[in-house]
Every structure is written in C-alpha cells, then in structure tokens.
Write a structure and sequence with these properties.
Structural class: alpha/beta
Number of domains: 3
Oligomer: single chain
Distance between the termini: 60 Å
Strand content: 5-15%
Number of strands: 14
Bound molecules: FE3-S4 cluster
Length: 391
C-alpha cells in the first residue's frame, strides 16, 4: 500500500501505541482487500459495544487501547449496548454484567466516542452527507447511509471501525470505489408498502441473492422503511448497499440493462415470513430493531392509546435511543403502560437468553438473530398482530 510519510510514522509508533495499533489494523485490512492507499473519513460508527457480544476479551482490548492513549479523531458514535444504563434491573440483568457494561461505555467515552449508543445515529447524532467517506460498523446503519444518503462505507467490523475512527482514515477499497457501487441485480418488488412489508421484502431479497447490490423497482421507502429494509437485507444476506429507482441518490446514475431481474411478490414474501416464524406463543415482545424513530414512537403510542394490556405473562420492550426517548415524553407515558421504553440497548445485544426462550418482534433482522445470538425461538409479525397477543 502507498502510505504517506505521516502514515508511515504512525505505523512506526511515533504517535504512540494506540495510533500504531490502529494503523496496523487498518493497513492489514487494506492489504487483504487490495487497497492502494488510505482515504480520509468524516465520521465513524462503532459496534462492539455490548458486554454480551465482546466479553472480557473485548473489554481488555478496549482497556489497552484507552491506556495506550487512543482517541478518535473524527465524530464517532456507538452502537447499542447490553442494557439501559438506568433501567438494567428491569431487563433481568446481573450486577456483574451491568458493571462491566458501564466500564465499556466509560472506555469508549475516554477515547472521545459519543456514547449515544444507538443503531440509528443517522437520524440525529451522526448524519453523513452524500459522497462522504465514512467508516461505519452496524450492518443496518451502514447500509442505510450507503444507500439512502449516498455516503460511502464498507461493512466494517467493530475493531476496524474503531481503528479508522482513531486515525481518521480507512483503507480505500470496496464500496469507497465507484465501480463497486454499481447494481448487480434488479429487484422488481410487489409489496403493500407497510413497514412490515419492507421487513419481509428485505428478508426475501437477502434469501434470494445473499450478497451484491440490488437495484429496486416498485418501492418508495421513507426513512423508517429504508432502515427496516437495510437491516433485513444485512441480516438475511450481507447486503451493504442498495439502490431504489427514483428514491436513492445514486440510482439515476446506473444503466441496469443486461442485469438479471428477480421478482419478489406474494410467494417470496410468504416464504420469508415462514422462515422467521417458528413459534406460536412468546414470553417477550420486543420492538425497535433498528431503534424506533420519533415517528414510530408516535405511531405506536397512537395505536396503544386507550387500550389495555390484559396478558401480564408477556413482557413488552420498546427499544430506542436516549435522544429519541427524551423527545417523546407523552408517547413514552402511553407506551410504558405496556412495557418499558428502553434506551440505548436492544433485544439482540442484551442478554435476554437469561430470562426468555421465546420472543416476538416485527423486525426481520431481529427475527434472524434472536435464534442465533440469543437462543430464542422467534415470532416475526407486524406490530398490531403482536399486540393482539397481550390485549
Ligand atoms: Fe439495532 Fe439491535 Fe437491531 S443494534 S439493528 S436494534 S439488532
């Protein structure tokens, strides 16, 4: 790789151990993926924030990085952590878990990371612009900013994103390059336009193509639908960039003639639904994957207003960011009659397996990960169908 003199000096340890480790990691990734050089980034979003997912090894890594003087050099936000910082006892979390989780957050804070802990930072805390090169982890968020905003990031892992945040640079390969952003397949989608239909569409597309850059016809997602679609395709497949005709900013610049076309309609959506529904009764209903936006908080509160939770055996969690929760006190009041509105955490990165075995969600992403990462049998239905279970 072509490194500048300043970059070579960092690699040689002249800027301290933290910077050196970060440069070693970023250049190693660059060599693996054939990058010719490094590129400046304007922001980072870091995953690897829950004690459940990183464990003691990850905690030690963060301790070492912070002790080595590492500090981020671009605006950087953090993914959800394993618990609501103020309400972890309601989540059946142990004192030991809570202490280690708080230490992880403290270490990220020490390194200059904004510890907002959400997977939807693009709605407020961290909003890239079109054409920005960024280093984002969190598969749903990076797909959203790549696709709906037109920023440029690879599917970074937690350590890679942290290293890039420290350097303010990442390796210049993959989705940073024009040619890798071209669509690889056309998807003709036939859906009813509800947010849940976007979840099933994403599930079906991920199942059909696995990876690649889908180019959609027949959809018009707004922010909530786009975040749902991004999350679903990133979980059922490994899609990190998609385009939608007449909607996403780069879509108009491609010639799609000659690409394979896949039709996703009723049969494919039903197959996606069947794949995610393996249980008929649940102990927990968890909404907010990706984190609920203000609009979704308002929609849920409007739906619940005047209704009563009759089935006390099923717990309900609503997951959002602290930022959004603070902005919607009236919605929170209504929702809290059904279950806690939890901030900065979610049903997948929290250790729910200690308390539950069967969980319902409206998210295809959570529907994929609840069985694999949380040992759950999962149900995936739209919000009104889930709420019927408790009313
Ligand atoms: Fe966000 Fe957790 Fe889903 S991090 S995208 S709510 S799995």
């Amino acid at each position: 790789m072509d490194l500048t003199k300043a970059e070579e000096a960092i690699l040689n340890g002249e800027s301290g151990e933290g910077m050196q480790k970060a440069m070693e990691l970023v250049t190693a990734l660059g060599k693996i993926y054939g990058a010719e050089d490094l590129i400046d980034i304007t922001s980072a979003h870091l995953s690897g924030a829950s004690y459940k997912t990183i464990g003691d090894g990850g905690l030690k890594y963060l301790e070492d990085m912070a002790a080595g003087g590492a500090r981020v050099s671009v605006p950087s936000t953090l993914n959800p952590v394993g618990m609501d910082r103020g309400r972890w006892a309601e989540m059946h979390i142990s004192q030991e878990f809570a202490e280690k989780q708080l230490r992880i957050i403290e270490l990220y804070g020490k390194m200059g990371v904004r510890t907002t802990c959400s997977c939807t930072p693009y709605t407020g805390a961290n909003v890239p612009s079109y054409g920005d090169h960024v280093a984002w982890a969190e598969s749903s968020a990076l797909s959203f900013v790549n696709s709906y905003i037109g920023a440029r990031t690879n599917r970074e892992g937690g350590p890679g994103a942290l290293a890039a945040a420290i350097l303010g640079k990442t390796a210049n390969y993959g989705l940073h390059l024009d040619e890798k952003r071209k669509p690889t397949v056309v998807i003709e989608a036939e859906i009813d336009g509800s947010v849940f239909s976007y979840s099933m569409l994403g599930q079906a597309v991920g199942m059909a193509i696995g990876s690649g850059v889908p180019y959609f016809r027949g959809i018009s997602p707004e922010v909530e639908e786009a975040k749902t679609l991004s999350a679903a395709m990133a979980a059922s497949g490994s899609v990190a960039l998609w385009h939608a005709e007449g909607v996403t900013p780069e879509a108009g610049s491609f010639d799609t003639s000659g690409l394979e076309t896949i039709h996703i309609g009723k049969a494919e959506l039903e197959a996606a639904y069947d794949k995610l529904n393996t249980v008929q009764d649940v102990q927990l209903i968890a909404l907010g994957c990706p984190h609920l936006t203000e609009k979704e908080m308002h929609q849920i509160a409007s739906f619940l207003k005047g209704k009563k939770k009759v089935n006390k055996d099923i717990e309900i969690w609503f997951c959002t960011s602290e930022e959004v929760r603070a902005k919607c006190p009236e919605d929170v009041r209504i929702m809290e009659e059904f279950g806690p509105v939890l901030a900065d955490t979610c049903m997948v990165v929290a250790p729910i397996e200690g308390a539950f075995q069967r969980t319902g969600t409206n998210s295809a992403k959570a529907g994929n990960y609840l069985p694999t990462l949380c040992s759950q049998k999962a149900m995936c239905r739209d919000i009104s169908a889930l709420m019927e279970l408790v009313m």
